[in-house]
Write a structure and sequence with these properties.
The chain has 295 residues and is mostly helical. It has twelve helices and three strands, in the order ααααααααααβββαα. Strands 2-3 form a two-stranded antiparallel ribbon.
C-alpha cells in the first residue's frame, strides 16, 4: 500500500507540474519529461533496455559482467563521458579516466544520446568469444566470427543475411496482392545492397563476419577503446592479413585486415551523417546504410 501511495504521489506531482507550466504559458510536456528523466529510476530503466537491445551476455562463458556489471563512476556519472566517446575515435583517450560500459550507458542516458554506447559495444561483442572447443585454430576463428557476427546482425541490423535470399527491400515471398495475406513491408532505400556483398553469394555472411576478427586482434595489443577499463578488453591497433584469406565486405569495410576498429569507425561516420536527418531515397552510402537500416 505504501508503494502504491508513493506511486500515486509521484504521479500527482507530475500532473501538478504540468498544470502549473501550462498556466504559466510554458511548454508543459518537455518540462515534465525532464523532471521524469532526472530521477535515478529513469536512468536505470534505460540501462536495462540497452542491455537487452544490444544482446549483452549476462551469464555463462561469454558473460560481459566484467564490463557491464560494475561501475567506476557511481550511479550518476554525468554526460561528459558519453560526449567524449561520441566525439572521438576509439583510439583516443576519452575523458581521461577509465570507465566501464555500465558507466558509459548511464552517461549516454544523461547525454540523451545512446550512439556512443552502441559504438563501444562493438568491442565488447568480440571481447568474449566462444571457446569453440574441438576445432582446429582456423575453424575456431571462423566459428567465433560467425557467433559475434550473428549477435551484431540481431542487435544492430535486425536482419539475417541468410533471410535475404527470400526477403529484400524489393521483393519477398510473403508479399501478396491480398491485404489479408500481405506480410511484406519493405524498407525504403534498399540498404542491403550497400551493406552486404551484392548480389547475394554463398560467402556473403562469411565476408561480412570477417570484420569480427578475433585472431591477432583481441588481446593482441594494449589499446583500451577510449581509455576504458582493462577488464573490458584490450586490442591491437593493427593486424596482419586474414589467416583464413577472407576479403571482408560489410558496408564500406573491405580487405583482409578488417577489425572492429574499422567497424566502429564506419558506424561513427554513418551516425554522424544521419544525425538530425533520416535517409531518403536509395541509400548508396555504405556508412549510412546499416545504421539507417536499423529500426
Amino acid at each position: 500500500m505504501a508503494a502504491a501511495r508513493s506511486a500515486r504521489t509521484r504521479s500527482d506531482v507530475y500532473v501538478d507540474l504540468y498544470r502549473a507550466a501550462a498556466a504559466a504559458g510554458d511548454a508543459p510536456r518537455p518540462l515534465v519529461a525532464r523532471a521524469i528523466m532526472a530521477r535515478a529510476e529513469f536512468r536505470e530503466r534505460w540501462v536495462d533496455f540497452a542491455i537487452d537491445a544490444l544482446h549483452v551476455q549476462r551469464t555463462d562463458v561469454q558473460s560481459e559482467a566484467a564490463c557491464w556489471g560494475q561501475a567506476l563512476r557511481g550511479p550518476a556519472p554525468g554526460a561528459a563521458l558519453a560526449a567524449a566517446v561520441r566525439d572521438q575515435p576509439a583510439t583516443a583517450a576519452g575523458d581521461g579516466a577509465p570507465f566501464t560500459l555500465l558507466d558509459l550507458a548511464r552517461s549516454a542516458i544523461d547525454l540523451d544520446d545512446l550512439t556512443p554506447l552502441w559504438r563501444a559495444q562493438l568491442f565488447s561483442l568480440i571481447a568474449h568469444p566462444i571457446p569453440a572447443a574441438n576445432l582446429d585454430p582456423l575453424a575456431a576463428e571462423l566459428a567465433r566470427r560467425d557467433d559475434a557476427g550473428a549477435s551484431f546482425e540481431a542487435a544492430y541490423l535486425h536482419r539475417d543475411p541468410v533471410c535475404l535470399g527470400c526477403h529484400t527491400s524489393d521483393a519477398s515471398v510473403t508479399d501478396s496482392d491480398d491485404p489479408a495475406l500481405d506480410r511484406f513491408w519493405p524498407v525504403a532505400g534498399a540498404p542491403e545492397a550497400a551493406v552486404f556483398a551484392w548480389p547475394l553469394a554463398a560467402d556473403t555472411a562469411t565476408r561480412a563476419h570477417a570484420a569480427f576478427r578475433i585472431d591477432g586482434f583481441l588481446d593482441g595489443g594494449r589499446i583500451h577503446p577510449w581509455g576504458w577499463a582493462a577488464t573490458c578488453g584490450q586490442f591491437a591497433t593493427a593486424v596482419t592479413d586474414d589467416p583464413a584469406g577472407i576479403d571482408a565486405h560489410l558496408g564500406a569495410i573491405t580487405g583482409r585486415r578488417a577489425t572492429a576498429l574499422d567497424l566502429e569507425a564506419a558506424l561513427a561516420r554513418g551516425l554522424a551523417a544521419l544525425r538530425g536527418r533520416a535517409p531518403t531515397g536509395p541509400i548508396a552510402d555504405p556508412d549510412t546504410a546499416w545504421p539507417g537500416w536499423s529500426p
